DNA sequence: ACGATATGAATGAATG
DNA sequence: CATTCATTCATATCGT
């Protein structure tokens, strides 16, 4: 059964803006007419799969800017994506999970989602990036997406940092590696004119 | 072309009285009289009436957690319903109301049911379903849907007490010296100002 | 039968 | 992190 819970799945959308892929990556269910000419990101099935992998298998719930970058970089192979997309995705996913639990359970209060904590490197069997072999040996058996050796642990509470504070440690990190005209983050610099926070 | 807005609502008086099988076995949804329990929830007239009562008379627009549970519990007496149904109903109702009002900003500026907020301290009238008293049964005293708290005038306690720059990079107990939050994309306010509407 | 409309459901984006 | 807004999809029902 289970004849539902599987609705629209518009794949990526490159309506003349940026065509970076579409080489068989998704198109798995490209039967439904997807007129996603919107400005909003439409995750591809691969991207979703990876995200869920990270979420469930790695326990990633609130990735740091560092991780977000990596994740988005990896996911970019399967379609257009930006850091904020990843950020929002995790936020939403987590929020909805909680909300769902909150709205559904009334009799059973204590039944948390069965999520196992990542054992630092238990994800040896990571198959997050099918079709994409990380050049970095990866003998350790760790995903390229996540941090090698220290991701997946405690959820660093810094979500707000992205928007509110810029507590960046100014690490002269030689990011680079991107030969794309998109820089690291397409997010550009959204200079906000509002800086009021209920504190 | 006159967009007559017909408020057609299938009054499938919960043929099951209390619960419709919903067993995916029968797919006889061809008849109107028959429960077309396809996949999605079909509110009964009673449920809709109560929901609207709450919406208009009580100014309930976005019930949260507890309220949703109470409401769904009450409405469950009139048919199968889940918390998320109530949640979505209010969300959609509010959204559509707004959308409608927004769209008809020139054609016909007739007041669209100006929802009035409960003048604070007036929700004593918890009788949501006037005309028939919802059998309070005997146990679950959830009939107090009408006065599910004081919604309307900032009753929702926003506990937005969080530490902004609390990026505790704890957990990195591995060999890693310390992860430096290299880059942070600012997700604060994407002042895109771009909201094209195409339809 | 088909198109339009109505509405439940889902989710990206954003705010507080 | 919780809550909310905006869009979009999916399906049902009605009108023609």
UniProtKB/TrEMBL annotation, chains A, B:
Residues 1-39, 105-139 are annotated as: Disordered. GO terms for molecular function: DNA binding; DNA-binding transcription factor activity. GO terms for biological process: plant organ development. It comes from the Eukaryota. Residues 36-101 bind DNA. The keyword Ribonucleoprotein does not apply. One of its GO terms (cellular component) is nucleus. Keywords: Developmental protein, DNA-binding, Homeobox, Nucleus, Transcription, Transcription regulation. Residues 34-100 form the Homeobox domain. Residues 118-128 have a biased composition (Polar residues). Residues 1-24 have a biased composition (Low complexity). It is found in: Nucleus. Belongs to the WUS homeobox family. This is Protein WUSCHEL. It comes from Hibiscus syriacus.
